[in-house]
Amino acid sequence: MKVIGFVGSPRKNGNTDFMVQQILKGAAEEGAETKIFYLNELNIKGCQSCNYCKEKGKCRQQDDMTPLYDEIASADGIVIGSPVYMGYMSGQTKLFIDRWYAFFQNPVSSLEQGKKIALVFCQMNPDETSYNTTFTSLGQMLSSLFGLELKGILVAGGMKDAETAQKNNELRQKALTLGKQLAR
Length: 184
Ligand SMILES: Cc1cc2nc3c(=O)[nH]c(=O)nc-3n(C[C@H](O)[C@H](O)[C@H](O)COP(=O)(O)O)c2cc1C
Hints:
Elements: E1 2-7, H1 15-29, E2 33-38, H2 52-56, H3 66-74, E3 77-83, H4 91-98, E4 104-105, E5 108-109, E6 116-122, H5 132-146, E7 149-156, H6 169-183
Parallel strand pairs: 1-2, 1-3, 3-6, 6-7
Antiparallel strand pairs: 4-5
Bound molecules: flavin mononucleotide.
């Protein structure tokens, strides 16, 4: 069982990083091998819409996304964490998710069906329902296009400073529980 996490915030040790780490910790407590990747530290270019992947089954671009394709393909569980920027995921996260287009082989994904996925979003807004529509549609898109089993979308609201999540025990528990679900 392998569970991998992607942090889409530029702030290392910030809220998103903490939440992804806690989810992975929960997965590790269930016996999973875990790995974490910091998207902001990677050179991941935007999808070029060249459709090379539709003919060849893999992305033409050679950058830091190249090894991540194998990491994703060999994972049983995946967590993607992003801060909310302008009511949406961060740019770092969006570049990464667009590159999943290489897995999309109409009508089915080249990924093995049934991998588990969890999403976590951190936001300043204390109302955790504010961006529900956005988060839900992202979760539905990922699960339907790539045959993933969505285990949960965790929203951390009221993240006033970089350490807010770390001080919230309830949030930590929710993250650990979600991580355990990813690894079962
Ligand atoms: C460019 C930018 C845009 C933001 N837009 C929003 C927003 O639309 N809604 C919101 O609630 N918080 C917004 N925030 C606040 C962040 O979501 C919040 O600080 C979050 O906890 C950051 O996560 P991090 O600690 O992992 O970096 C924004 C922050 C930045 C830097």
